[in-house]
Design brief:
single chain, 124 residues, alpha/beta, 5 helices, 5 strands, 41% helix
Length: 124
């Protein structure tokens, strides 16, 4: 059974790029354009095996989303990667404190993305 990745980003271009790379590699993809929409989708099937979220988004940014996702039943141990143009150490520290598994800096090439996914998702 293929693994499912949730991608959360307010950029349609970024969502399409990530989705294309993941689907070519055989992953199922669920997407949302902000943290509010992503939280609503967490309770729906399929349950993501990995979440990749942007940090700067309208309505609910990635930092807040990470904290809320970690507090959602069944997502305490789901890997969450922050994907952003931000490189500030304070943001990285805050994301890690709230439960982020790792940090990727945009833009990320498809092969590099798949390599990281395979590292953080057991059996991917």
């Amino acid at each position: 059974m293929s693994k499912t990745v949730m991608i959360v980003d307010d950029s349609t271009t970024m969502l399409m790029s990530l989705q294309n790379s993941l689907e070519i590699a055989g992953y199922g993809v669920v997407s949302a354009t902000d943290g509010v929409k992503a939280l609503a989708k967490l309770g729906q099937a399929p349950k993501p095996d990995l979440i990749i979220t942007d940090i700067n988004m309208p309505n609910m940014g990635g930092i807040e989303f990470i904290g809320k996702a970690r507090a959602t039943a069944g997502f305490r141990f789901t890997p969450i990667l922050a994907l952003t143009t931000e490189s500030q150490q304070s943001l990285r520290d805050e994301a890690k404190k709230l439960g982020a598994t790792g940090w990727l800096v945009k833009p990320v090439a498809g092969p590099d993305l798949i390599k990281v996914v395979k590292q953080v998702v057991p059996g991917a």
